[in-house]
Amino acid sequence: MKQADRTFPLPFFTINKNFTILTFSQEAEKLCGTPASLLEVFDQGSLEKVKKWVTPELHKAALEVHLKPVAEGVEPLTVDLYVTWDNDLYAQALIIPKDDKLTKVTKTLNQLRGRLNDTNFELLDEKEKLENAISQNNRLSAPFIRLTEDTALIPLFGDLTQVKMQAVEDNLLKSSQNDDIDRMLFDFTAVGEMNREGIQVLTNMMTSLFYMGAEIVIIGVKPKQVKVLHEMVIPSQIRFMNSLQQAIHKYCVE
Amino acid sequence: MTPHHKTLARFFLEGDEKGAIEYIENLISEYPRLYLYEDIITPAMYYVGELWENNKISVADEHLATAICDFVLSRIEAQTKKISGEHQTTFKAMLFGVEEEQHYIGLKMVAATFKEHGWRVRYLGPNLGLQHSYSQVHSYKPHVIGLSASLSYRLPTLKKLVEHFRTLEWNPLIMIGGRMAKKFELEELESDQVMIVKDLNHLNQWFNEGREGAINETS
Questions:
Q1: Contacts of residue B125 in chain A, CB cutoff 8 Å?
Q2: Choice between A49 and A235, residue whose per-residue pLDDT is larger
Q3: What pLDDT, in 10s, does the model give residues A234-251?
C-alpha cells in the first residue's frame, strides 16, 4: 500500500526488505515520481551498491548513490542515502541531494576537458594538413622533364632529405621506365642543404636507374656540396658536368 | 606486496599526479605498454569503482582519480615514439563515446593503442552528439569507427549509430567497446562489419591476427 501522506520536508520512503516502497513523502514524489520499488529510483551503476548496503543485517547505513536521470540529457544526480531498519522487515530511507557545488565542479571539469580535447583535435587537424602539404611539396621537388626523345632533366629543389628523396623515388623510377629514356640529367642548381641519409637514398636510386639502362649525369654541383658528395660512395658510372647549359649543348643540340 | 594496480589507485585517489607518473614510468621500463593499460591502469580504475561501491570513497574522490588517470595517460602517450611519415599506415580510426556516455578512460587507451600501431586517429572524447558524430564520420571517412558505452541505457543510441554506420559506402569496420561490451550480450549486433571488442588484449589480437583469422583492417 502506498500513500503520499507524509509531509516530511525531504524525500523519504519506507520500504520492506524486498525494496518495495510502502510509503513516501511528497518530496520523494517530486524527486522520483511514484516507483513501486526503491531500486527503480537509482542509476544502473549504483544498484549493486544499494543492494549491498541496504539490508537488515546492517541496521544503519549511509551511502552515496546516483539517482536515475529524470530526463534525457540530464546527468545522474548524486545523493546521500540514509537507511535505518525498524526491524528485519521494514526500513526508513532518506534521500538528501548533494550540495550543488559538487555538480558544478564536475560540470566545469568536464567542460575544461572537452575544451582541451577540442583544442587538441584542432591542432591535430592542422598537423595533418601540414603533413599533407609537406608531402606534396616533397613529391613536387623533383619533376621529370623530357628534353628530347632520350634525355630527361630532373631539377632537384630544396634540401635533400631522406623523406623527400623517398617521396620522389617512386615517381622517378616509374617515369624513367615508361618513357624511353636513355639519359637523365640531375640538376643540383636549386639544391640547398644535403644530408648523408638523403644522399644515400639518392645514390641508391641512381644506381637502380643505371641498372635499368639509363645514363646518369649530375649537373651544377656547388663547391660546398662537393664536400658532402665526396664523403659518400658515389657509383663510378655517374658523370658530372658543370652547368645545365653545357649538358644541353652536349646532349640535346649536338 | 600491494599489487601494482592498488598502489597506482592510491596515487590517483590522493591526487598525487607526480607520484603516479613516477610509479608508471618505473613500470614502463619493465612491462609492455599493453600490459600497463590492460593489467594495471584498467584494474586500478575498476578498483576505484569498487571502493566507491564499498562506501569507502565519495564521487568527488572518483572524479579526482579519473582526472589524474587522464593526465597520466596523456603523459604516457606523449612519451610514446610517434610513428609518422613513411612508416605511418594510411589507415584511419575515429573513436568516441556515444551520446551521454561520460566514461572515456578506456577509449583513451584504445586511441593510444591505435596510434602505436601507426594508425591515424581521431579521438573525439565522450558524449559525442549523434549528428556531430555523423558529420565527423562523413568528412573523415575512417576505416574503423570505435564506439564506447558502459551502461545499458546507451543501447538504443548504440544501435542507431551502428545502423547508420553500416550503410556507409566505404564499409568501415565498426568496433563496439567499453564496459557494456564486457558485461552485456551484444552478439546480436555483431556481423561482418560490426565487431565487439572485449578489452585491449582482444584489440591487440585483432591487430596481430585479424578477426578470427578472417578480415583484418579493411579487407
A1: 113-114, 117
A2: A49
A3: 778 888 888 888 888 888
State which residue of chain B sits closest to A122, comparing Cα positions.
B122
Cβ distance of B86 and A166 shorter than 8 Å: yes
Q: Do residues A217 and A241 make contact, with C-beta atoms less than 8 angstroms apart? A: yes
Work out the number of other CB atoms within 10 angstroms of the CB of residue B134. 14
Enumerate the domain spans of chain B: 4-79, 85-209
Output the pLDDT for position B218: 46
Predicted pLDDT of residue B165: 94
Distance between CA atoms of residues A77 and A42, nearest Å: 9
What is the fold, at CATH topology level, of the domain defined by B4-79? 1.10.1240
User: Which grid coordinates belong to A231?
Assistant: 664523403
**Taking the domains of chain A in order of start, what are their residue ranges?**
12-98, 139-253
Q: Stretch B139-147: mean pLDDT, rounded?
A: 93
The CATH number for A139-253, chosen from 3.30.750.24, 2.60.40.10, 3.30.300.20, 3.90.1150.10, is 3.30.750.24
- Position B217 scores a pLDDT of 47
Q: Which fold has domain B85-209?
A: Rossmann fold (3.40.50)
What pLDDT was estimated at residue B9? 95
Query: CB–CB of A160/A202 below 8 Å?
Result: yes
* Residue A80 contacts B where some CB pair is shorter than 8 Å: no
Alpha helices in B117-193 (DSSP H): 130-140, 155-166, 179-183
Q: A44, B153: Cβ pair inside 8 Å?
A: yes
Distant-in-sequence, close-in-space partners of A24: CB < 8 Å, separation ≥ 6: A2, A3, A4, A6, A11, A12, A13, A14, A34
Q: How many CB pairs under 8 A join A and B?
A: 50
Is 3.30.450.20 the CATH number for A12-98? yes
Per DSSP, which regions of B39-126 are E strands?
92-97, 120-123
**Percentage of chain B lying above the pLDDT 90 cut:** 56
Assess A124–B contact: CB distance below 8 Å, yes or no. Answer: yes
Q: Tell me what pLDDT residue A179 has.
A: 67
**Minimal CA–CA distance to B105: which of B61, B67, B142?**
B67
Examine the pLDDT at B22 and tell me if it is beyond 90.
yes
Distance from C-alpha of A225 to C-alpha of A62, rounded to nearest angstrom: 79
Q: Which residues of B touch A (CB under 8 A)?
A: 52-55, 58-60, 63, 67, 70, 84-86, 100, 102, 120, 122-125, 151-153
Res B56: pLDDT: 93
DSSP state of A141: T
